[in-house]
């Protein structure tokens, strides 16, 4: 009868799992969070529309020449664009901060995971002193 | 398969090691140590401030940290690596080469536990071979999952366990066998393995074992028949449970991209425009679907794909969903909204809002047409400018092609068409076939803006899944249990009794009603008989026991018909035989219940037999749809028969009543007088059991009995009778074919052609007795006793015997002579309450209180 279940030493099995499989899994989760942040803040889209009017609110210039109306529309549109710029900049900054936080948190968690056995050994040494 | 050896398998070692309990203990310990670590850290901080010996205090939190990390790591390691053993080969390969591999290695930890417990059980009962009935017993006793399945199947686990135990104890203990496992046990394991492969699992689970037991264990098979459960029910239920478990597991993985996407996107929303007017009169499906955690849209996958493809086009991205109401057209929109929200749609559509414009609210709030036009224009402009809205209008036909201006009706096609051409405008319209033909197609240029997507009806299996998911929500809402057989019964009965309405709506409606009905009864479980009651009330047909009743009816059909029909024993027998043949379950389910051609002279009982059949089968003579076919002598009469929409809309005399009361007897009188082309229409009805009416709706005749009557051939019958020959059906039919009255392909499509013989004097005597008895009964209600004499009967028969008029002439004589004189006696107060009387056979005068 042939062997079906992989016959591996539990230590080898654990080493492979701890130092290879789990970090790979954590990297995948990290990637999910990074992608989520990209989608949530949509930084490329915000940058592309940085100077666009706020919430696409724009006024159409009059068809006949009316200097007062023309100026009115021009100033309103400028304002709309300024508000748009201000709001987007805030969101871009928030997005960038969040993205940096995700990057750092990911690195820290993965490193901590890899270091768990060493932390345990170090702890035992500290207690036994 | 002789290699099955649970004791040598590694999974058995894990079970003996009790790995699941170890994981639970470690899990508890890890939480405890984390808690102690946090507490000790707090102590450490406090002691540091208070200037206690620091190093001593620091050792405690470090110890707890070590213990926490170790137990935490051990739990994750055991869960991810040890519960699921790493297998060298796939289950399908092992099944293909059963002699080389020990299939026990492919059992998952729970099913391995069941098998080990079965071995233990058999040893304790001194059974030499482990058999599948013992496995069934242990599975129901020990497995939580199988218990849950039994619960949902409506099986009483305690009683069932007792029955199995009794059966095992009664069954003969086998001799010392070579193989520790019996043939049937190994067959169950092998079948469970095959099923796991089919379901793309790499190990054999408890659910698969239960299905395999249902397929292979004789005791279980018999028990299932008793509980009225089919093997397919268990298969469907386990599959459904699998999908629920999968979805729950998905929801638990909070780190998955799908779950993270539920939070939404702020950036994309900020780069899109406001829709102030639209928001006032709309339902944002994104908000609705964002709250869905477990709900999934079942069926219509092709249509959902198509809608997305249309919406993603660079121009004319407008979809028109066409389907009959109740087919789940809106669920397609819900699914698109869900996919857009979760970012699982096409890149062009992801994170778009699917917004449905509530036209009813809009029209009820703004009545002034000019104002309405302005607001609609603003709304559509907002949609086009916002850049992230997919607009939906349900029942689009109500707002397009409105010829007459009336309250609540407004033609939006003009304003909408202006925007439909804009590339950034994405639109979904929902309409029905009738709406498409009547309103939208009348404006071809408007229709050109759309890509039509036709919605087909969901299948019965998909409907079962939809109902199962709905049942979960209803159970939570009403605190009741809806067992699986109830759901199956709903689908079966609605499929049979409401053939003209589509799935899933009709089934969902009945489920809703059943839940409310059970609530009113203060019961806790929705059972199949509750569903039967609801459908009985709706159709006025005794559902539920129908099958039992039908059997009884079929077996006694001759007797039941003869209660009303005199003579014609040959005809009655033929009808009964044909009905039994058609209804025994061997005939196609798509054809009508029975189709007959009644030939014979007038007044011999053709219509009466039809009435009797309607009474016997459908419970009332009112369930007979009678059409005089002599009214349909030209092709121009076809619209009157099957309905039409142009030049004027009319309902069909045949199709509409059949749509409304699908369980009825259709009597087509004097069929030979109808136009040949009209007869051709019936070829399909008789053969396929359906016809498409003038409104384009499919009308099902599967629950009808169709009877065509004809006087054609009556002359030949009389001729044969006069010459004293035996009446031969074949000869009469041959003459009819020769005279081109009927064509062979028409006559051949009937279940039976029944010949009614002219009535003899004896028959008429019996009929006279029947009609005088009914008169006697009526007079009895007025407390007047009518004495029927033989002489009177003889006289009536003597006066009315005209073979060419049959029993009709007699009815006339009874009316003219007997009823008239009784009526005048009653009016002139000659006849009063409490009196007895008889009728003089010669003069037809009333003789009151006759001397006996």
Describe the structure.
The complex is a heterodimer of chains A (129) and B (852). By secondary structure, chain A is mostly helical. Chain A has one domain. Chain A has helices spanning 10-41, 43-48, 67-128. In chain A, helix 1 packs antiparallel against helix 3. The longest helix of chain A is centred in the C-terminal third of the chain and has 62 residues, at 67-128. In chain A, 11% of the residues are buried. The model of chain A has no long low-confidence stretch (mean pLDDT 89). With 852 residues, chain B is an alpha/beta fold. Chain B has six domains: 10-82; 91-252, Double Clp-N motif, CATH 1.10.1780.10; 260-454, Rossmann fold, CATH 3.40.50.300; 460-543, Helicase, Ruva Protein, domain 3, CATH 1.10.8.60; 548-755, Rossmann fold; 761-848, Helicase, Ruva Protein, domain 3, CATH 1.10.8. In chain B, 56% of the residues lie in helices and 9% in strands. Chain B has 40 helices and 18 strands. A six-stranded mixed sheet of chain B has the order 1-3-4-5-2-6, with helices on both faces. Chain B has a five-stranded parallel sheet with strand order 10-11-14-9-15, with helices on one face. In chain B, strands 16-17-18 form a three-stranded mixed sheet. The longest helix of chain B is centred in the N-terminal third of the chain and has 31 residues, at 19-49. The radius of gyration of chain B is 38 Å and the shape is globular. The mean pLDDT of chain B is 87. Chain A binds chain B through residues 1-6, 8, 13-14, 17-18, 21-22, 29, 32-33, 35-36, 39-43, 45-46, 48-49, 52, 55-57, 87-88, 91, 95, 116, 119-120, 123-124, 126-127, and chain B through 3, 10-11, 58-59, 62-63, 65-66, 69-70, 73, 76-77, 80-81, 85-89, 94, 100-102, 105-106, 255-257, 260-261, 263-268, 270-274, 343, 351, 385-387.
């Amino acid at each position: 009868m042939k062997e079906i279940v992989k016959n591996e030493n539990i230590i080898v099995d654990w080493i492979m799992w701890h130092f290879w499989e789990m970090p790979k899994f954590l990297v995948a989760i990290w990637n999910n969070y990074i992608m989520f942040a990209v989608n949530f803040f949509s930084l490329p889209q915000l940058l592309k529309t940085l100077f666009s009017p706020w919430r696409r609110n724009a006024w159409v210039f009059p068809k006949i020449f009316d200097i007062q109306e023309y100026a009115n529309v021009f100033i309103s549109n400028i304002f709309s664009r300024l508000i748009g710029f201000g709001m987007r900049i805030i969101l871009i900054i928030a997005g960038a901060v969040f993205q940096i936080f995700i990057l750092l948190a990911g690195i820290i968690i993965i490193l901590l995971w890899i270091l768990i056995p060493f932390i345990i050994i170090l702890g035992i040494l500290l207690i036994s002193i | 398969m002789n290699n099955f050896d649970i004791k040598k398998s590694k999974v058995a070692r894990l079970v003996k090691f009790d790995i699941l309990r170890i994981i639970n203990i470690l899990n508890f310990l890890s939480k405890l140590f984390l808690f102690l670590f946090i507490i000790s850290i707090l102590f450490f901080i406090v002691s540091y401030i208070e200037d206690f010996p620091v190093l001593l205090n620091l050792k405690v939190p470090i110890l707890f940290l070590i213990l926490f990390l170790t137990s935490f790591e051990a739990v994750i390691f055991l869960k991810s690596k040890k519960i699921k053993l790493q297998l060298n080969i796939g289950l399908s390969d092992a099944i293909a080469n059963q002699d080389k591999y020990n299939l026990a290695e492919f059992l998952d930890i729970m099913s391995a536990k069941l098998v080990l417990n079965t071995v233990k059980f058999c040893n304790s009962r001194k059974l030499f071979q482990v058999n599948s009935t013992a496995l069934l017993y242990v599975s129901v006793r020990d497995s939580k999952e199988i218990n849950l399945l039994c619960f949902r199947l409506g099986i009483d686990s305690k009683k069932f366990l007792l029955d199995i135990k009794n059966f095992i104890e009664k069954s003969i203990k086998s001799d010392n066998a070579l193989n520790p496992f019996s043939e049937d046990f190994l067959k169950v394991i092998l079948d469970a393995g095959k099923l796991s492969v089919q379901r793309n699992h790499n190990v054999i689970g408890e659910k698969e074992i239960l299905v395999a037991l249902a397929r292979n264990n004789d005791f279980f098979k018999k028990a299932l028949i008793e509980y009225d459960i089919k093997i397919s029910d268990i298969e469907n239920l386990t599959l459904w449970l699998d999908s629920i478990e999968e979805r729950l597991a998905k929801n638990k993985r909070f780190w998955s991209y799908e779950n993270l996407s539920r939070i939404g996107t702020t950036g994309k929303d900020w780069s899109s425009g406001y829709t102030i007017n639209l928001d006032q009169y709309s339902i944002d499906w994104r908000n609705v679907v964002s709250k869905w955690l477990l709900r999934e849209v079942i069926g219509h996958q092709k249509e959902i794909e198509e809608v997305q493809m249309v919406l993603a086009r660079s121009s004319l991205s407008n979809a028109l969903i066409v389907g009959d109401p109740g087919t789940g057209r809106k669920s397609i929109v819900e699914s698109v909204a869900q996919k857009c929200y979760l970012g699982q749609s096409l890149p062009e559509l992801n994170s778009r809002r699917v917004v449905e414009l509530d036209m009813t609210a809009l029209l009820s709030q703004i009545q002034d047409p000019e104002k309405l036009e302005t607001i609609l224009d603003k709304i559509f402009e907002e949609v086009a400018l916002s850049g992230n809205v997919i607009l939906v209008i349900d029942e689009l036909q109500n707002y397009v092609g409105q010829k007459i201006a009336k309250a609540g009706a407004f033609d939006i096609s003009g304003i909408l068409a202006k925007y439909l051409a804009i590339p950034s405008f994405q639109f979904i319209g929902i309409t029905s076939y009738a709406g498409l033909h009547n309103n939208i197609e009348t404006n071809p240029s408007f229709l050109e803006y759309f890509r039509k997507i036709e919605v087909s009806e969901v299948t019965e299996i998909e409907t079962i899944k939809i109902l199962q998911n709905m049942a979960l929500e209803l159970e939570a809402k009403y605190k009741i249990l809806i067992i699986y057989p109830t759901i199956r019964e709903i689908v079966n009965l609605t499929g049979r009794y409401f053939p003209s309405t589509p799935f899933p709506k009709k089934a969902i409606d009945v489920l809703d009603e059943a839940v409310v009905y059970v609530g009113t009864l203060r019961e806790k479980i929705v059972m199949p008989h509750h569903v039967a009651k609801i459908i009985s009330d709706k159709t006025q047909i005794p559902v539920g026991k129908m099958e039992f009743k039908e059997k009884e009816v079929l077996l006694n059909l001759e007797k039941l018909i003869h209660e009303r029909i005199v003579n014609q024993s040959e005809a009655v027998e033929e009808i009964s035989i044909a009905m039994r043949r058609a209804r025994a379950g061997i005939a196609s389910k798509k054809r009508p219940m029975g189709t007959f051609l009644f030939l014979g002279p007038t007044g011999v009982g053709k219509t009466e037999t039809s009435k009797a059949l309607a009474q016997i089968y459908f419970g009332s003579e009112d369930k007979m749809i009678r059409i005089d076919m002599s009214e349909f002598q030209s092709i121009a009469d076809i619209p009157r028969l099957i309905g039409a929409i142009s030049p004027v809309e009319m309902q069909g005399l045949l199709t509409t009543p059949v749509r409304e009361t699908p369980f009825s007897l259709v009597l087509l009188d004097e069929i030979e007088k109808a136009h040949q082309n009209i007869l051709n229409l019936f070829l399909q009805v008789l053969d396929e059991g359906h016809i498409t009416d003038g409104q384009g709706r499919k009308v099902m005749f599967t629950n009808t009995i169709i009877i065509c009557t004809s006087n054609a051939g009556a002359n030949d019958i009389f001729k044969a009778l006069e010459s004293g020959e035996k009446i031969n059906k074949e000869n009469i039919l041959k003459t009819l074919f020769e005279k081109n009255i009927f064509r062979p392909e028409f006559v051949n499509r009937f279940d039976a052609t029944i010949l009614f013989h002219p009535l003899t004097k004896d028959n008429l005597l019996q009929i006279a007795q029947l009609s005088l008895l009914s008169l006697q009964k009526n007079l009895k209600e007025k407390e007047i006793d009518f004495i029927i004499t033989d002489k009177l009967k003889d006289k009536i028969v003597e006066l009315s015997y005209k073979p060419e008029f049959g029993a009709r002439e007699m009815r006339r004589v009874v009316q003219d002579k007997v009823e008239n004189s009784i009526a005048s006696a009653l009016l002139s107060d000659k006849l009063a309450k409490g009196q007895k009387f008889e009728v003089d056979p010669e003069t037809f005068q009333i003789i009151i209180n006759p001397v006996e």
